[in-house]
Design goal:
Blueprint: H1 5-10, H2 16-53, E1 84-91, E2 94-100, E3 106-112, E4 117-124
Antiparallel strand pairs: 1-2, 2-3, 3-4
Length: 127
Amino acid sequence: MTRPEAEEDDDKPLDPSIEKVRRKMVRFMGINLSILFLALMVVIAALVYKSRTSAPQVAAPAGDIQAPAGQAAEGDIVLPVGARIVSQSISGNRISLDAELAGGERVLFVYDIAEQRLVGRFTIRNR
């Protein structure tokens, strides 16, 4: 079998000017690939360093009440005499109590559990 004409041209040496351009392109490609590889290694090294040096920070969910380990949160919430709690709601370290006072007046009390203090008292009225 005979080889096609195109394959015979591949074995011939290139023109010196074209060979010079080819060498420049190969050198250019080698330099660019080296720089790209080096930049990739720097990014990977930075990620590994960052993951090993920073301590994992676990944030408590917003609804959690922070109490010392092994102890339950406890304290006193003082309401006026004759008050009746209609509803309650908790968010983070705050609890709101919707209370009905002895005279029929509705009041919303907001307490900070962590500081164990009354944050606000809001009267609920109809217009």
